[in-house]
Structures are given as C-alpha cells and as structure tokens.
Amino acid sequence: MFLTITTTGTPEHPATDLGFLLHKHPDRAQAFATSFGTAHVFYPEAEEERCTAALLLELDAVALVRRGKGKGRGGAPDAALAQYVNDRPYAASSLLAVALSKVFSSAMHGVCKARPERAAQRLPLRVEVPALPARGGPDLVRRLFEPLGWAVAVEPVPLDTEFPEWGDSRYVRLVLESETLTLSAALRHLYVLLPVLDDAKHYWVSSDEVRKLIRVGGAWLYFHPEVKLITNRYLSRRWSLTREAMERLELIRLAETDDSEVEEIDNAVEAETEQEEKPTPLAVQRREAILTALRERAAARVLDLGCGEGHLVRALLEEPRFTEIVGVDVSVRALAIASRRLKLDRMGERQAARVQLLQGSLAYTDKRLKGYDAAVLSEVIEHLDLPRLPALEYAVFGSARPRTVVVTTPNVEYNVRWESLPAGHVRHRDHRFEWTREEFRTWARAVAERHGYAVEFRPVGPDDPEVGPPTQLALFTLGTTETPTEKEAKAA
Ligand code: SAH
C-alpha cells in the first residue's frame, strides 16, 4: 500500500517545508510500528522546487487476522480478513488511512510548531495512490473528491495487462491535484475517503467511529453533496450510527457558533455609540426589550429558541411570573455551558421545576414545543442559511404556534455606524445574512400573513435617524389582524 504527497515551491517557500509540515525530515527514512504492520515514510525527492513524501505500509497479514480475532475493537473479525489470502497488503484502504492519521497526526490537525504560518497556507498539492480499491468506480471517485477542490485523474487498473479482455479490476490509479487546500485538509479528505472507496473496513465499527468521523470530517463533510453516502459507507452501513453521525454533523457547524462573541461585538458597538452616560450593553438592552414584550403579553410559559449559553433563560428565572421556561438549542456545547452557568444541578427543586433545556434543531417540527404562551428567537434567524428559514418558520409559526413570538436580528444598515467593522462585513462570522429594516419587515409581514399572526416592530438600542437601531425586534401575536398595541390605542 503506497501513497505519495508532492508539493512544489519557490525560494521564499521551498517545497522542502513539506518536511516541517509533516513533522518528518526529508533526509531520513523512518519506520513506525502499527498494530497491523510497519509504516515507512521517506522522500523520493526533496528539492526547493519539488518535494515528495511517500507513505508505504508493509502489512503483517498474520497480525491482522490475530488482531481481528483477538482484542481488536469490538472483537469481531472482518470476514474478509479471516483468511490469509486477501488484497489488504497491496491496496490502499482503511489501513492506509489509519497509518496516515498515526504517522501524520500533527499535520492532519494543522499543527506545525516550526512553520506555523505554513500549516494554515494553501499549497500546490499532488497526491498519488497507484492502487486504490474503489467500489463505485472512477465516477464515484470523482464525485467524492471534486466537490472538495481536487482535480481528479482516475484510471481503472486492468485485471491483467496481458489479458485485456478480462476487463478492469476494482482498483483505480488515482491522482489528485489542488492549489486551494491546506495540507491538513488534504490529509483529512484522504483519511475519510480512502476507506469510503474501499468500502470494507478492517475492524468492527463502533460508535467511537462516529466521533472520529465527526472530528476529522467536520465542516467539509457537512457541506459535501455526498455526505450521506460517505457517512453510511464510513460507518459500514450501520444505519443507527449513520443517523447519529448525520445529526452530529449538523451540530458541528453550529457548535462553532460562539454567542459570547455576539456579546463582545454588541459591547463594542455600544462603546462607540454611547459615550456620555454609562452605557448599557446592547445585549442587556435586547434582553430588556424582550422581557418587556413578554410582560406586556402576560406570557408565563416561555420558549427561548436558540437559547445559546442561557443568558435570557437566567433573566427569565429571576421573575416569578415566568412559571415555565424552556431553552432550546441545537448546540450541545452551548447547552452544556448554559446548564453550568444556571447551576441546574444545584438548583432547589422548585426552581428546577421551572426550567428545562432541550437539544433540538429549529429546522424541524418538534411536538415538545407546542402549547406555550410565547417563543423568543433572539439573534437566531441570521444563523440559518436562507433556504432553511422556511423550515424554521413552519416549525415555530406553523407547528409550535405560541400566542406570542419575539424575533430579534441585527439591522445591517446600522453596521456603517460601527467603525471597527470593515465595510461589507457581517457582525459575526456565523451570520448567514444580515437584513435591512425593509428586508426584515417584508419577511416578518409575510410570515405573519401566512400563519395568522399580527406583527409590530420595535427598535432596540439607539434609533439612529438615518440608519435605524442596531437591533430590530418583531413582535408577533396570534389570531388578530390588529396588534394588541393598536387595539389599546383605539380603545384609549
Ligand atoms: N439567543 C442567544 C444566542 C444567539 S446565538 C442570544 O440572544 O444571545 C444563535 C444560537 O442559535 C446559537 O446558540 C446556535 O446554536 C443556535 N442555533 C442556530 N441554528 C439553530 C437551529 N437550527 N436550531 C436550534 N438552534 C440553532
């Protein structure tokens, strides 16, 4: 089993930096023992202009069979390996992937102490695997690698060159080239996709594999058009694991959202806009505006949808009028932080009975969310891709249908007032969009119309005469054509 990685370079960025990036010196051949044989790393060429690292895996077939029968993961042997004659020693497969992750672990995680700036750089890369078992053939190979930014050259390997009439083997010769990837990304792609193409894992798949797949796959896997096929094959077609992985992949993207950053940015906006009096952070003003709306509507049972780390949940808990508070978020990490901050485990029984944290995605309808007085979506909608917004709309306004819904989102017009924000940038790296007042109102009015709500709008933060307030709030009320505020005005 054999794989090479080649890069080219210049006098400022010599190709031999590959040695630093892989943490393996180009002048030395090194050998590493693995539980199924020996992995050799050496450099067939190492010049300033061009450098190639080779990984050769010399398998111990006996060790493999023993390992499968003995104390291997889960202990169940792979049927294909329960014999001494098989293709494992010759073909690149999941074993090569395992060796890759073992020998080049730092590089895979993007760590390079000697050349940290290079680890984050995109490199010209060429990966060659002379014999890769590829179930699904050249077409699938292309479908797997091309969306990731690779130019793919793939040729089937004939069964026997002397007898072309025998046709092709299930092996291909694969050459991948890219100018747009970091070495770390390239290694992650190989680690996941080589076994996927082989489609015959060498050890029993456990839910530990889900964790590994998620860690190495992460964001690129989530956005891959073949994410389902990849996940399913990687997990040896165990559907329960595949489902678990698909769910966790969705979380991954969102778990990277850090709402403490939202507050930091809000504070920065605040520091710049209100210098005279002691400024109230925008996040605090936003919570106050939300609480005011909930009090006005006499809501007692409240959903905080996309509750993040639980700041609003905590504020709700401080007021006895809110008898039932449910925080929902898709990010397990955010919920864990919320739970710790709220000290849920040390709360008295009466308090604890008032609050619940649920993990779930707002892009799906959820029976648990039905029948509440009010739902809050504070700085949440802009974290969804626009095409997913109708799903959230239906889950909240169509299915959960609380009497009152409070939605807040940034007003993009206000961004020009924020000096430290470069022109054209959003306020948070996970924001999928930021709306003008007009865009938000158009959306909110259409939602209200579709689901039988009335809607009114309120500014949060200083309402600039030209660009409006930093945060915009929509207050929806079920089953009226007039908003309650309009009704009150009429009655008065
Ligand atoms: N409401 C909080 C947090 C806002 S950050 C506040 O006002 O400070 C956005 C939050 O929405 C994050 O915690 C993120 O995990 C969550 N989120 C994003 N998409 C979601 C989805 N589809 N389902 C549930 N929560 C989601």
UniProtKB/TrEMBL annotation:
<dbReference type="InterPro" id="IPR013217">
    <property type="entry name" value="Methyltransf_12"/>
</dbReference>
<keyword id="KW-0943">RNA-mediated gene silencing</keyword>
<dbReference type="InterPro" id="IPR024026">
    <property type="entry name" value="3'-RNA_MeTfrase_Hen1_bac"/>
</dbReference>
<keyword id="KW-0489">Methyltransferase</keyword>
<keyword id="KW-0479">Metal-binding</keyword>
<protein>
    <recommendedName>
        <fullName>Small RNA 2'-O-methyltransferase</fullName>
        <ecNumber>2.1.1.386</ecNumber>
    </recommendedName>
</protein>
<keyword id="KW-0949">S-adenosyl-L-methionine</keyword>
<dbReference type="Pfam" id="PF12623">
    <property type="entry name" value="Hen1_L"/>
</dbReference>
<dbReference type="InterPro" id="IPR024740">
    <property type="entry name" value="Hen1_N"/>
</dbReference>
<dbReference type="InterPro" id="IPR029063">
    <property type="entry name" value="SAM-dependent_MTases_sf"/>
</dbReference>
<keyword id="KW-0808">Transferase</keyword>
<keyword id="KW-0694">RNA-binding</keyword>
<dbReference type="Pfam" id="PF08242">
    <property type="entry name" value="Methyltransf_12"/>
</dbReference>
<dbReference type="InterPro" id="IPR038546">
    <property type="entry name" value="Hen1_N_sf"/>
</dbReference>
<keyword id="KW-0460">Magnesium</keyword>
<feature type="domain" description="Hen1 N-terminal">
    <location>
        <begin position="1"/>
        <end position="249"/>
    </location>
</feature>
<dbReference type="InterPro" id="IPR026610">
    <property type="entry name" value="Hen1"/>
</dbReference>
<feature type="domain" description="Methyltransferase type 12">
    <location>
        <begin position="303"/>
        <end position="388"/>
    </location>
</feature>
<comment type="similarity">
    <text>Belongs to the methyltransferase superfamily. HEN1 family.</text>
</comment>
